[in-house]
């Protein structure tokens, strides 16, 4: 059996885990069957490749940051059922939006511009809402009068969606571009130094190795592609010391690591968004040192979560720091035997 067939036959897909959860499931099966992925930063985002068990590149993809570009490469490699690939292609970034997003900061860096967007919207009395939309995420930016400023209809993850929403609005895009024009961009540094990220799934989590001139300069792991890669950047001596300390503090205080089930944190976050959409609970995103979410029902906050690189981690975190029963409102158990 060839590599593609091995991967396809081993997939255990749960579509409610969203595009990011699906991407990680495919990554897991790629690696279990002897393959791996690699990704590099570019001015317009990230470029990724899927490498099979013989060392051959079988899929390529470019998107805003590491994970969606890896998903594009997985689709290009035909490692997903065709109907699911078709649906997933709708949540990946168009060339036009990719160009607009890259104008704000580029090189695969999405958290910094997203955090500025969120802060600016809130400073002006508006708010940012996140919704599950098919296999992707919808981001809506509102002003102080509840008027929609911009939206990303469906995107890979919340932070990607916020970047796309902001980039679609020319005024916001230019404001972010101006704000960040003199900022240090770790992705740009990696691009200039021709670094390569080797991203793999093993031991029930994601590992990232950073290579420079074929020499490993950073290695670490995490609960998803983004967390793993940023931790590897820290190991390589990259990134802001302040932000790295904040990131470590978040991981130090994350309770999920003590009940880790081998699912990426994004899959859990997508599950939360899937459920709250059905029960009319809103997720409002804020930023103050960390990306946070308030889960709101009838204008009342019923849950609060903290994340760092993505609000999906904040959605998962909300279950652990709030009352999950109030947030998710469990439906009656199905298939439970009843005897009178």
List the defining traits of the structure above.
6-stranded antiparallel beta sheet, 340 residues, alpha+beta, globular, 26% strand
Distance between the termini: 52 Å
Q: What is the arithmetic mean of pLDDT?
A: 94
Q: How many domains is the backbone divided into?
A: 3
Across the major sheet, the strand order is 3-2-1-7-8-9
| Residues in helices, as a percent range | 40-55%
Radius of gyration, in Å, reads: 19 Å
Structure write-up:
This protein is an alpha+beta fold and 340 residues long. It has three domains: 3-91 and 184-242, no CATH class; 95-173; 259-328. Helix content is 43%, strand content 26%. It has helices at 3-10, 18-32, 66-76, 82-89, 95-104, 111-123, 158-168, 170-180, 186-192, 225-235, 241-252, 265-278, 311-321, 324-328; strands at residues 36-42, 45-51, 57-63, 127-133, 136-142, 148-155, 195-202, 205-212, 215-222, 282-288, 290-297, 300-307. The strands form two sheets. The protein has a six-stranded antiparallel β-sheet with strand order 3-2-1-7-8-9. A hairpin with a 5-residue loop joins strand 5 and strand 6 (148-155). It is globular. The termini are far apart.
